[in-house]
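ESCALATION

Customer reports they have been waiting on this structure for their group meeting. Please prioritize. Original submission:
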Amino acid sequence: MADVHNRKTRSYNMSRIRSGNTKPEMLVRKFLHANGFRYKLHDKTLPGKPDIVLPKYKTIIFIHGCFWHGHANCKYFKVPKTRTQWWLDKINRNKANDAKAVKVLRKDGWKIITVWECKLKPKNQKGTLLNLIKKLTV
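Update from on-call: job pushed to the front of the queue and completed.
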């Protein structure tokens, strides 16, 4: 099946997707702040430029989009039917970069929490956010 948009429209749509301050990220940030957690954002001095850094808890939270980070067995991760190999290469590079950053951060003593976009959808959101607090306070 061909793309429903022409090349120019698809390019424009993809250019509008942000890498930071996404809806899932803002949701987690507001929840943490409302529950008394203070954090740093997108710390460029740390590998992977983590979305949320909680120095007091020596914890890093990555909020991953299911498509961009290749969330296995997730209904929100579908490989595009056009330029398939290009997309697979891009997503696999993202996954490799994620793994490399996590390895270095763990070696430096950081606790890593990954929150997937699909787990922040309305039916899973409350449980995911409460579980996040549980992981932070253990």
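Sent to customer with the following note: Helices lie at 7-15, 23-34, 84-107, 122-137.
Escalation resolved.
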